Amino acid sequence: MVRVKQRYLLFTILYPSGPQSANSTTSKPTQSMTFHSPSPSSLTRTSLASIIRSSISSNFGDWGIGQCGGFAVKYFSPATSTGILRITRDNYRILWAALTYTRELCGQPAVIKVVRVSGTIRKAELEAVKLAEEAIRRVKREAKGAKNGGGGNGDKKVVAGVFAGGNSAQAATAINDDQDDEMLVDIVDSENDDDK
Amino acid sequence: MEIDTQAPVAEVPAIAKAKKKYDEQRFTVRKPEWQYLHLRMTFDPPHPPTYTSPSYPPDLLTWKTHLSTALNQFLGIAGTAIPIDFLHLEGPEVWMRFPREDATRFIAAIGGWGSEVEGRNVGFRVLGSTEFLMGIVGGDGRDVFV
Fold it and tell me: Where is this region: Disordered (chain A) (predicted)?
């Protein structure tokens, strides 16, 4: 019995100019918040898959689609602009290249950055949690630098809101929902540690 | 007696030296840089013999266009990035070269391609594919070593 080996690609979408729809909710976005801003709500797992597929097709043709057209978007959160792709191990570099060559999403310039290649989806998820923590810490630091002191309780709400938004906007699988709950707990714990 | 015994002793190093000097040297080219290809553009229905027109026999730009179309369909932009050198053009046939690493996918891409141009089905036929130029220019190459 031979097992099919897979690779899980954790990616984040960066918006050099910031999506037009996202700026309305935040009162005064910091620089890193603009760069890592949420994706437009029209970007879903299925639409993302078709965009990636067309990128593979234009860059690697029929052969490329044949090699790695069988990828799956396992998870995508428009709130954090983070997602996980699954692909067979032999072909993950083609998919990676196709992601790198993607220049715009939903009509606005975007960069898809592959943050981590992993053999299990669990490790990719842990990395996603770490990334989210870092992003929040960075935003807090920038906010503190801006007005010399930030709110303590408000941060938890921000974190909860970010991940809750991700869940409601995106119908994830049952496993992913469980993982998201864990993420939330992890983040709140570590934030408390930081405050002490 | 003395001469008999000493003469061979003196000769042995001389023979060894001579053997070393003219020892057979072998050299194998393991990974050549280029793959050479002899291609013919096929037309169906075929052109009558001695037929000529502005579009037949195809010129190098036509070759480049059709090859790029085939490569773009099968390999996308990555396929059109394969650098092709046309070496010789004669009638509907062309001799060309490209990097050896791309040989498999290149031949797969152009071999599976077909299109309709001016009411005729156009395709490519690979007449020869080799890692050495001698393999497609004809002859057994013996005249090189005269």
Answer: 19-41
pLDDT, tens digit, for every residue of A56-115? 999 999 999 999 989 999 999 998 899 999 999 999 999 999 999 999 888 889 999 999
| CATH 3.30.70.3250, domain B34-135, yes or no | yes
Chain-chain contact of A57 with B78 (C-beta, under 8 angstroms)? no
Are the beta carbons of B124 and B40 closer than 8 angstroms? yes
Same domain (yes/no): A113, A153: no
- Supply the Cα-derived Rg of chain B in whole angstroms: 26
Per-residue pLDDT of chain B (146 residues; tens, 9 = 90+): 444 444 444 455 555 565 667 788 888 988 999 999 999 999 999 988 888 888 888 999 999 999 999 999 999 999 999 999 999 999 999 999 999 999 999 999 999 999 999 899 999 999 999 999 888 887 665 665 66
Q: Give the residue on A whose Cα is nearest the Cα of B106.
A: A63
Is residue A56 domain-resident? yes
| Host domain of residue A179 | 131-195
Domain count, chain A: 2
Q: Does residue A97 share a domain with residue A38?
A: yes
Interchain contact, A63 vs B72, CB within 8 Å: no
Q: Which two tokens stand for residue A62?
A: 């029929």
Q: What's the sign of the alpha-carbon dihedral A42, A43, A46, A51?
A: positive
Specify which residues B37 forms β-bridges with: B96, B129
CATH number for the domain spanning A105: value is 3.30.70.3250
A79 within a domain of the structure (yes/no): yes
Chain A residues within 8 A (CB-CB) of chain B? Answer: 56-64
Model ipTM value: 0.74
Spans of all domains in chain B: 34-135
